[in-house]
Hints:
Layout: E1 4-8, E2 14-18, E3 23-26, E4 34-44, E5 50-51, E6 60-68, H1 70-84
Antiparallel strand pairs: 1-2, 3-4, 4-5, 4-6
Amino acid sequence: MDKKIEHTHDNGVTHSHEGGDVPHTHGAHDPYKIDCTTITTYRNTKTGEIYKDKKEGPDIVEDVTVQVTNKGLEVFQKVMNDAKKPKP
């Protein structure tokens, strides 16, 4: 199944990945790199059933989860702490 998952990063960059759930690095052109995997599932809001393959219908919603590695989380925390520091 060929699908693209589009998402927007905090820096405003929007892109997609071929094949859906793929490990990738956020910030490839930034000084910080955060390793993560994007996972997309489809859920029936009436029955609670969850599907890995794309489903469509009035009761189907798309859920997107981004899993960040421990190292990626440490980098993300550093970025957030740096952003809180007062600028000279």
